[in-house]
Automatic annotation (TrEMBL):
Annotated GO biological process: proteolysis
Keywords assigned: Hydrolase, Metal-binding, Protease
Keyword Repeat: no
Positions of transmembrane segments: none
One Pfam family here: M20_dimer
The protein's name in its UniProt record: M20/M25/M40 family metallo-hydrolase
Length: 457
């Protein structure tokens, strides 16, 4: 039987596939809130039942947190592992939703039909594109496409505390020839893409302390050191006038783009003016000798995510605060070492402290960047499959964010991952009124059928 028959089956069964997604979206599997623990369990059970109905050997695996779902299908040829997550973000602020976030529905919008509900795009809708592709294949051929493992997590939105221990304990079972991850999107909401670069992330919270109490600014101003002044100088010194980060050794391990990737990115004709204009900005603010796409996808950053101290309430209070605080994050690329950068940042701060001031650090997160080796034949096979489905040449792209699982597949299990997703820029993931376009869901299913046909041989 041909691929055409599978694609026809996907088209024919789209209403039933959408109903199944809506059933899954009704389960409020919010992983970060203990009040929803039973619902996370229920979502895992739902997935196990669906996968068993397709012929997978599926099971819910306990962890110290929320369960993993692991499923296997035997077969010949390459062994692929598919990863997705069934947990979702909290829904606050609830009053900004147009409908109950766990009462999903199909809505007609000016841009087409969408599936509205928490988790529609991140990541239940994306996860179900792969499962529905397997279902259509089974309906047409009577068997699944080949040797497939599914690995579905329930803690991605709450820091994945159980993920790495589970991967290490089950490495032999989970290791495959290549991993497939569906948690990304189309480039500029139209061009199919395979993410080959992910930035790492390292965060630091620091508190600068001065006097043992807030001081009257008339009595002590000018003679007592102000921790906010110290903190402001430290932060201002992290960048030079060209936008480069000043920490010693910060750029160690930062690699340059290959000519092939640079040319692909140039051909994307990224409209940075519109990208910035959509959020009320106009001028790129990073390294001035880099293109905007380079800055977003392949260059490291240092950003202040929060800063506070002293009196910030209504009115005015003339004090010298005893403490000043900031949260600072670093997005990392290439072979940058997050531990070395943490040490360099702390040493830089400590060297700037005047007498009578002390600092306390609290680390947040620590993951290296991921860079996939696109010489694996599956990458070009998948790129061809996506191009055929979407009618546009699929591109290898970077991602400004961090998806740690891709790096863990490499460091823990020794395999590369292809990140292929069908989300759009306006899906409002993590925000009120999250949605997933019906087109993304439909063509996402068709895309995975095409990818499986080429990769599984």
């Amino acid at each position: 039987m041909s691929l055409d028959a599978v694609l026809a089956r996907i088209d024919e069964a789209l209403p039933q596939a959408t109903d199944r997604l809506i059933d899954l979206l009704r389960i409020p599997s919010i992983s970060t809130d203990p009040a929803f623990k039973a619902d996370c369990d229920r979502a895992a059970d739902w997935l196990v039942a669906e996968l068993e109905s397709l012929g997978f050997e599926a099971s819910k695996r306990p962890t110290p947190g929320h369960p993993m779902v692991v499923a296997h299908a035997a077969g010949e040829g390459p062994h692929v592992l598919f990863y997705g997550h069934y947990d979702v973000q909290p829904v606050d602020p609830l009053n900004l939703w147009h409908r109950d976030p766990f009462d999903p529905a199909i809505e007609e919008t000016a841009k087409g039909r969408v599936i509205r509900g928490r988790g529609a795009s991140d990541d239940k809708g994306q996860l179900m594109t792969f499962i529905e592709a397997c279902r259509a294949w089974k309906d047409v051929h009577g068997s699944l496409p080949g040797r497939i493992t599914l690995f579905l997590e329930g803690e991605e939105e709450s820091g994945s505390p159980s993920l790495v221990p589970f991967m290490k304990e089950n490495a032999a079972e989970l290791t495959a020839d290549i991993a497939l991850i569906c948690d990304t999107g189309l480039f500029e909401s139209k061009t199919p893409a395979i993410v080959t670069m992910l930035r790492g992330l390292m965060g630091e919270e620091l508190t600068i302390r001065g006097a043992d109490k807030d001081l009257h600014s008339g009595m002590y101003g000018g003679v007592a050191m102000n921790p906010i002044r110290v903190l402001a100088r430290i932060i201002a010194g992290l960048h030079d006038d060209t936008g480069r980060i000043t920490l010693p050794g910060f750029y160690d391990g930062v690699t340059e783009l290959s000519d092939e990737i640079r040319a692909q990115w140039q051909n994307l004709a990224f409209d940075h003016a519109r990208f910035l204009g959509d959020v009320g900005l106009s001028a790129p603010a990073g390294e001035q000798d880099r293109t905007p796409l380079e800055m977003i996808w392949s260059r490291p950053t240092c950003e202040v995510n929060g800063i506070w101290g002293g009196y910030t309430g209504d009115g005015f209070k003339t004090v010298l605060p005893s403490e000043a605080h900031a949260k600072i994050s670093f997005r990392l690329v290439g072979q940058q070492d997050p531990n070395a950068i943490r040490e360099a940042f702390r040493a830089y701060v400590e060297a700037q402290l005047p007498a009578d001031c002390a600092v306390e650090f609290h680390g947040h997160g620590n993951s290296a960047a991921g860079q996939m080796q696109i010489d694996h034949p599956a990458f070009e096979q998948a790129r061809q499959a996506l191009s055929e489905e979407w009618g546009l040449a699929a591109a290898y792209v970077g991602c400004g964010g961090s998806i740690p699982i891709a790096g863990y597949f490499k460091t823990v299990l020794g395999m590369d991952a292809m990140l292929i997703g069908f989300g759009k820029d306006d899906d409002q993931i993590h925000s009120p009124n999250e949605k997933y376009d019906v087109e993304s869901f439909h063509k996402g299913i068709r895309s995975w059928a095409r990818v499986l046909e080429k990769v599984m041989g």
